[in-house]
Amino acid sequence: MPRETGQKLIASNRKARHDYSVLDTYEAGIVLTGTEVKSLRAGRASLVDAFATVDDGEVWLRNVHIPEYTQGTWTNHAPRRTRKLLLHRKEIVRLIGKTREGGLSLVPLSMYFKNGKVKVELALARGKKAYDKRRDLAKRDAERYIARTAGRAAKGRW
């Protein structure tokens, strides 16, 4: 059986970049059971409302929904159980300091397979206020309008 190489996206948290301003990102491994991995291989997971916490020197991923494996038996997993994240000790110490600093959260941005292993892209983020979100939307709309106008001008279709 050939080994898997490369990356395959399982789930992404698109709303996270809207609700938070990302300061730093980390790649973490995740401790899973067999039925969870099989369910993820089917491409089924949801990162909506998911977050990570640092408790007793360990990082835990909470509220990630991995549905039960359809062919699973009594050994199936609980869909929203708390899962342990695997990071280097230095990264964990840095995260403990940053999250205690205040106003910062750990938010999962995406979950993917990398060389056959499940990884989570974790972001150290600060929550945005409503006016920040509106400003970002207006900026994106303005950039889109400018690009569209420049494209029309290049084609000679004012």
From TrEMBL:
- Keyword check for Cytoplasm, yes or no: yes
Q: Which GO molecular function annotations are given, in alphabetical order? A: RNA binding
Q: Name one Pfam family in it.
A: SmpB
Q: Which UniProt keywords apply?
A: Cytoplasm, RNA-binding
**Which CDD domains does this one have?**
SmpB
Give the subcellular location.
Cytoplasm
**In its UniProt record, which GO terms are filed under biological process?**
trans-translation; trans-translation-dependent protein tagging
* Gene Ontology CC entries for this record: cytosol
Q: Does the keyword RNA-binding apply?
A: yes
**Known role:** Required for rescue of stalled ribosomes mediated by trans-translation. Binds to transfer-messenger RNA (tmRNA), required for stable association of tmRNA with ribosomes. tmRNA and SmpB together mimic tRNA shape, replacing the anticodon stem-loop with SmpB. tmRNA is encoded by the ssrA gene; the 2 termini fold to resemble tRNA(Ala) and it encodes a 'tag peptide', a short internal open reading frame. During trans-translation Ala-aminoacylated tmRNA acts like a tRNA, entering the A-site of stalled ribosomes, displacing the stalled mRNA.
Task: Tell me the protein family, please.
Answer: Belongs to the SmpB family.
Q: What is this protein called?
A: SsrA-binding protein
The record lists the organism as: Longimycelium tulufanense
